[in-house]
Amino acid sequence: MTDQSTIQFFTEVPETSIAEVFELLDQTAKNLRRIRRLTVRESGLTPPQYQVLSMLWDRDEMPLKDLASACNCTRATITGLIDGLERKGLVSRKPNPDDRRSLLAALTDEGRALQRHTPALEKIYEQCCAGLTSQEFRHLGLLLSRLNESLIF
């Protein structure tokens, strides 16, 4: 947005209370979770399993502790997720050549093949956000980042 269009945008937006903004954020998060759940369900995965697989699709053979950290979960939780993905034949565990005490999660051929048949959430999110220009989306990202940084409890 140019400065003029930014001014025009903000003058057209009705007054919104802080409570209303947070309610909108909550509703947006619920809608995004629903979209993710429906999309991921088509591939027979849970959202956390999809998250682990998408990380492995980007970088195969990751240490379990790195996956847990990237998913913001405990090692016990990631172990359970990997167990489920192993039962489905999508990942396997293998020794970490850099650390004898840890294991790597590695994609199987089936796990790699699933990527070709699974819609990328990024593409689905893009379709859902067609009502925003790329610049508006960048502004939204900046504002949400600033909001998250300012939330102190």
Q: Can you give the mean pLDDT?
A: 85
Regions with pLDDT < 50 over 5+ consecutive residues? none
Span between termini: 33 Å
Question: How does the helix and strand content classify structurally?
Answer: mainly alpha
Structurally, the number of domains stands at 2
Number of strands: 3
Sum up the structure in keywords:
single chain, mainly alpha, 2 domains
Question: What is the topological layout?
Answer:
Blueprint: H1 3-12, H2 18-41, H3 47-58, E1 62-63, H4 64-70, H5 75-87, E2 91-96, E3 99-107, H6 109-117, H7 121-128, H8 134-150
Antiparallel strand pairs: 1-3, 2-3
Helix pairs in contact: 4-5
Summarize the structure.
With 153 residues, this protein is mainly alpha-helical.
